[in-house]
Amino acid sequence: MSVTAAKGFTAAGIAAGIKENGNPDLALVVNTGPRRAAAGVFTSNRVKAAPVLWSEQVVKGGAVAAVVLNSGGANACTGPQGFQDTHATAEKVAEVLGADDHGAGEIAVASTGLIGLPLPMDKLLPGVEKAAAELSEYGGEKAAIAIKTTDTVHKTAVAGGAGWTVGGMAKGAGMLAPGLATMLVVLTTDADVDAPALDTALRAATRLTFDRIDSDGCMSTNDTVLLLASGASGIAPEHEEFAEAVRAVCGDLARQLIGDAEGASKDIRIEVVNAASEDDAVEVGRSIARNNLLKCAIHGEDPNWGRVLSAIGTTSAAFEPDRLNVAINGVWVCRNGSVGEDRDLVDMRFREVVVTADLAAGTESAVIWANDLTADYVHENSAYSS
To answer: N or C terminus: which one in the chain shows less Cβ crowding within 10 Å?
Structure first.
C-alpha cells in the first residue's frame, strides 16, 4: 500500500535523532530500475526551501535514482548553508548507494518541519547510512511513518492495472493550500513510462486532487510531489489508463490529508455547480474553503449559509446575487439569494459536511475539500515551535 507496492523500489524509515522525541524522522526511497524516469511538481510559494530548489533542478534532468526525506526540520530560510546541507545530503545518499553511474544530481531531497532552523547534519548524514542499510521492498510503511510531523496517521495508497502498479505515500496535516502541489508526496510505479509522460500524468492528477484541498489557506515553502518510474513490470500501459491510476492514488492521498488536518472535527466537501467556467468554480470553492467564519460555524454544526454567500461575493466569478442557491447536506437553505428551506432540517452531526453552491451561470463544476476551524487547531499552531 505504499511506495514499495510497485516493483523496482526499496524503502526505509528510521530514527536519525533529528526529532528530539526520538520518533522516526528520516526516509529513503530507492529506484532499483531498470528505468529511473521521474517528474515532479513543487510549491509556487516564492519563498522556497533549499530542498525544493535542489529537487527542482534534479527533476529537470528527467531521472531520479532515490529520494531522501526528513521530518523534524524544513531546511527553509536557512541561507546558503541550507542549500549546502541539501547538496551534502544528496551526495551522501549517492555515496552509500554506490551510485557510480549517477551522482548527487539524480538524488531528490525533501524536508518538512519548522522553518528557519538548520538541520543537524551530524545526525542526518549518519542517518542516511543507517537508512541505506535497512532498505527493503517491504519498507514503504516505515518510510511513510518517518515523514510525519503533526500528522496523527501515516498516509499511503495504491492503484494500477493488469501487471503494473502505482503506489504512494504522503505527509501533511497543516499548511495545506494549493500551489501546484501541497505537502510531501512520493509516488512510484513499475510501469514502463518515460519522464515526459510522467510529467503530463502528474500535472493532470495534481490539478484535480492536491490542488483542490485547502485546509487553512497557508501555502508551504516545502511542497513537493514526485512521481518515479522503474519500468520493472515491463508493461507500458495506455496513457489514459496510467493517468487515471495516478489520479486515483493522488485523490486517495489528498482525501487522507484533509481527514487528518490539524484539529479538524469535520471534513467539508465544497461542490460548486453551474459555474460559467471551471476556473470560476475553483475560485468560488477556494473562497468558501478559506472563509474562517464558515469553518467555525461548521465546527459548531451551524448551517450558516449567509457566510457561503459572503464568500462567493468576494470572487470575480460570473453570477447574479439573486440567482445563487446554497445547500448544506442536501438541504437547499438558500434559494435565489434569499431564504430557502428550513435550516433546522440540516443534519450536521456526522464527520462529513457537504456544501453545494449553485452559481446558476453555466454548466461547469469543481470540488474543493476543506475542514473546520477548531480550538485544537489554534492550540496546535500556537505551541508548534515549542
So the answer is: C
Q: What is the DSSP letter of 138?
A: T
Neighbour tally for 273: CB within 10 Å: 18
What 8-state DSSP symbol labels residue 28? E
Number of Cβ within 10 Å of residue 194's Cβ equals 14
Question: Which is nearest to 239 in space by CA: 208, 206, 205?
Answer: 205
Q: Which residues contact 119 (CB under 8 A, 6 or more apart)?
A: 18, 70, 73, 75, 78, 82, 85, 111
List beta partners, residue 352.
Answer: 267
Question: Is 182 a catalytic site residue?
Answer: yes
pTM for the structure as a whole? 0.92
Distance CA 153, CA 256 (A): 9
Tell me which of 43, 182, 188, 221 is the catalytic residue.
182
Q: What are the Cα distances from residue 48, in Å, to 53, 75, 377?
A: 7, 10, 25
Q: In this structure, are residues 36 and 91 in contact, taking their beta carbons and an 8 Å threshold? A: no
* CA distances for 194 relative to 117, 229, 231, 274, angstroms: 37, 8, 9, 38
**What are the 10-residue block averages of pLDDT along the chain, 386 residues in total?**
96 97 97 96 90 97 97 95 97 88 89 92 98 97 94 94 97 65 85 98 95 80 92 98 98 90 89 98 96 95 97 98 98 98 97 97 96 83 63
CA distance 83 to 8: 30
pLDDT for the residue 199:
98
Q: Which three cell numbers stand for residue 362?
A: 453555466
Return phi, psi of residue 178, to 5°.
-75, 150
361 strand-pairing partners: none
pLDDT per position as a tens digit, 2-35:
999 999 999 999 999 999 999 999 999 999 999 9
